[in-house]
Amino acid sequence: MRPLAEADISEFRNVRFVLTDMDETLTFRGRLGARTYDALERLQRAGVKVIPVTAAPAGWCDQMARMWPVDGVIGENGGFFFERAEGHRLVRSFWHGANDRADVWGRLAEIARDVLAAIPGATFAEDQPFRLTSIAFARPEDADARAAIASAMRAAGADVTDNNLWVLGWLGGYDKLAMTRRVLATSYGVDIEMERDAVLHVGDSINDAPMFGFFRHTVGVSTVTRDLPQIPTPPTWISEGPGGDGFVEAADAVLMARNLQSARGQASGAAWAFGTANEEL
What we know:
Elements (H helix, E strand, L loop, with lengths): L1 E2 L13 E4 L6 E2 L2 E2 L1 H12 L3 E4 L5 H10 L4 E4 L4 E5 L5 E5 L6 H18 L16 E4 L4 H13 L3 E4 L3 E5 L5 H13 L10 E5 L5 H6 L2 E4 L16 E2 L4 H38 L1
Parallel strand pairs: 1-14, 2-5, 2-12, 12-13, 13-14
Antiparallel strand pairs: 3-4, 6-7, 7-8, 9-11, 10-11
Helix pairs in contact: 1-7
């Protein structure tokens, strides 16, 4: 893991997609800064597809996909993809098929009731009413309490992760990377096995570990250091700033590489035109 400031200016020249965690990666201490929002805008204006990939609930993701300068949002750790469409519409796709979602949700509700009954102090996250594919418990400060909640969900057959806000459970065996693979293939025709360099991922937490482990272009904002012992493959680069400031550094690196590529292309075109003109003379 090296400082992002040391990356060569051409490092990210092939990046066409910026995928990013949301909480404490785009935000910092719960707030989205104007510089960060502007960075999202600048990436889109440059033709880069921007997709938050987050554990955040469906209610938050619906708002982000509709109103933010992003192309869509993968939410609840891979449970769905809300893609921006024409006007104010969204196209919603879920990991589970329509015929299975009610049964999956019923089983998650059972698991949640069992965890609340078995683990003293376990409480739902405040955003639980806005979730469609996962159950989220408020993340206790105490590591043993977090482990107890996670263990109870795993014992019931759920997939589990945690980040700086939630201990999250779901059913289906997917994660951020699995849904990213599906979304980029079905919505954008990109096979990430063949085009890993087309993607840059920015994150800060344990549930970003599959992304850090797969993609070559990965950036951890500075606060990722607190979770590094639980991340098998660290990000390739680390920003100087935390949260949104770190994301701006990553966005700037992508945009500088694209500007350099564009300038080289224009110079090459000008040289070709000059040579052709000389031949005609």
